[in-house]
Design goal:
By secondary structure, the protein is of the alpha/beta class. Helix content is 41%, strand content 18%.
Length: 360
């Protein structure tokens, strides 16, 4: 059996499965994929389904699986050393995506009112482990973090660890908007993940700050009106978010060009239009928007209510989220340093357990 692969995916949940199975259905050039995770039965199924779908669609993709527990020290490094991937995709997390749609306990209420940044410390530790392993064992690989990359990727970058990009979130809106247009032209979107909430409700309820959209460098004045027909599910939209990174992963594996929208490119906060060319990922902003303006626009959401990382690596909760946390734990509400992410994760995990046992 050949242990080497072009793409290594950590995780066996719904998001990782969506990525793997869409790689199987869309690859136009030969690609080898290894799926790594703890769940032996799920690994067997994803390997079987991946190879079946590649055959079904006549695609030159092959899938293997490896049992790997990322909570075991050096497990990620051992897997990366064995597989020697061009692209490492991290989709394993201590926080499931259904926190978005469930409203049945005090924890999901906290997240609904304070924002998803409450989950950042739960989504970060495994991604930190993989980033450290990439740096130590395969520094030339592209590292794609799928676990809340809008906020977690800046945490990774604050520790001087490698991070290429994330997938999902802002790509949900950008692709949904593009799909609503007959001819997208040169279509670019500057969305923050907090913008998603408006499109989970009916058009008449949508209000507040909207994402910014340009067609052929001309900014659309009323985004809510232009894209009133777009409707997102109240569930995690993995039908779009999962496959949104697949074309990029295949481009990285092959060394070809790609352009689109991603969260957390090169560790930046929020999401941006980007291009991958000559082996590099860069912002691809509208002509009248500077890099500084785009970053500031994204940061403003977290500054109002979310999690902001300072130059020394101190991460501070802000706005409504900080208020809600302060009512529950002054220690957690005071923030944390990225070097202490494991301690911050344990504290938040304990709080989550207590709140999950309480009604909203």
């Amino acid at each position: 059996m050949n242990d080497k692969a072009d793409i290594l995916i950590f995780g066996t949940g719904n998001f990782a499965g969506r990525i793997a199975l869409d790689l199987a259905a869309t690859a136009s050039d030969p690609v080898r994929v290894v799926i790594a995770g703890r769940n032996r039965d799920r690994l067997k199924w994803l390997r079987t389904a991946g190879n079946a779908r590649a055959t079904l669609f006549g695609r030159p993709a092959r899938f293997e699986s490896r049992q790997v527990d990322l909570s075991v020290p050096d497990a990620a490094a051992a897997a990366i050393s064995l597989v020697e991937p061009k692209v490492v995709v991290q989709a394993a997390s201590f926080q499931t995506g259904n926190v978005i749609s469930n409203q049945d306990n005090a924890w999901t209420k906290l997240v609904a009112e304070g924002g998803l940044s409450a989950t950042a410390v739960l989504q970060a530790p495994l991604s930190f482990e993989v980033a450290r392993a990439v740096k130590a064992k395969r520094s030339q690989a592209y590292f794609i973090n799928c676990c809340f990359p809008d906020v977690v990727n800046p945490l990774i970058a604050a520790l001087d660890l490698p991070i290429t990009s994330g997938v999902g979130n802002i790509a949900i809106l950008s692709n949904a908007f593009a799909g609503a247009l007959a001819d997208a032209g040169r279509f670019k979107v500057l969305p923050h993940y907090q913008n998603l909430a408006a499109w989970r409700g009916p058009p008449e309820t949508r209000s507040g700050r909207s994402p910014r959209v340009w067609i052929d460098d001309e900014e659309i004045a009323d985004v809510y009106a232009r894209f009133a027909s777009v409707q997102l599910t109240r569930e995690p939209a993995i039908e779009i978010s999962g496959p949104s990174g697949v074309p990029l992963m295949l481009a990285m594996a092959k060394g070809s060009d790609w352009s689109g929208h991603l969260p957390g490119p090169n560790g930046l906060p929020g999401g941006y239009p980007v291009k991958f060319s000559a082996g590099r990922l860069d912002l691809d902003l509208p002509a009248n928007l500077t890099r500084e303006e785009a970053i500031s626009w994204n940061l403003s959401y977290e500054q109002e209510s979310g999690l902001v990382i300072g130059p020394t690596g101190q991460a501070n909760y802000t706005g409504v989220l900080r208020e809600r946390l302060a009512a529950l734990s002054s220690t957690i509400a005071s923030g944390f340093n990225v070097r202490d992410i494991a301690d911050a994760c344990r504290a938040m995990s304990d709080l989550r357990s207590r709140l999950q046992a309480r009604s909203p």
